[in-house]
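Could you show me some protein's one-letter sequence and the numbers that encode its backbone in two labelled lines?

___
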Amino acid sequence: MLSRLSRPKAVAICALPVVALLATAVFAPLPFAVAQPGMTANVLGENKGAPVITISGAPMRTTSGQLRMTTIEATGPDASVSLGDVIDGWFRTDRAVLPRDAVYPSGNSVQEIEQHNAQQMQQSQDAASRAALKYLHVSEKDVKVTLKLADVGGPSAGLLFTLGIIDKLDGDGAGGDLTGGRTVAGTGTIDAAGDVGAVGGVALKVQAARRDGASVFLVPKEECTDARAELPKGLRLVPVTTLNEAVESLVALEKGKSVPSC
């Protein structure tokens, strides 16, 4: 014999599967990473008690000002990111939700990803040294550059490493500092020919830069739009595509001349 349920009870019973599905969606891990502004480091100074740039075979200048490389911090490759985390990240200006595969190579273990990032950092440092010495017309046989930056991986510090080496060896080329005494931050890959490449995460990196006192930010030109999206007040964006442009812009700023902006 069948009995009828009251309307409230029927609605409650029908709603149970929906509630269960929503609960599962909220707490189920999703293929995303949540990123936020990370640490910055002055490549002209020390990082964790050790000089970032060490040069032998040529005298090193005493510099003023700072050249700060910038980073983002993202949830780990094995971290569980829920729908709640994603929604929260989308509505915050100091967070970014990214496909996990855009941050970490798909299918790799945590150890393999760490090795990949370390390899990219080493390649970036090698390219930075070659690009800087080539710019200064200095032979790699005569001058050895050692770069050391703890707990940072990937290639995005290449441009700032290169500028740091140039500032340590030659400054602005006329006895002054390449920074003009300012705190300059930036991001961008570099190759041995001095070409600057995009890196991603610039909307978060500009926030990290301003937080740590930068007034100028060097950004790969193709990422100007992203950098402007959450640009903090008091931070000037200077677009660059080559090492020559970056140096020329910094020297122009030092002399009070106009420079390109995003």
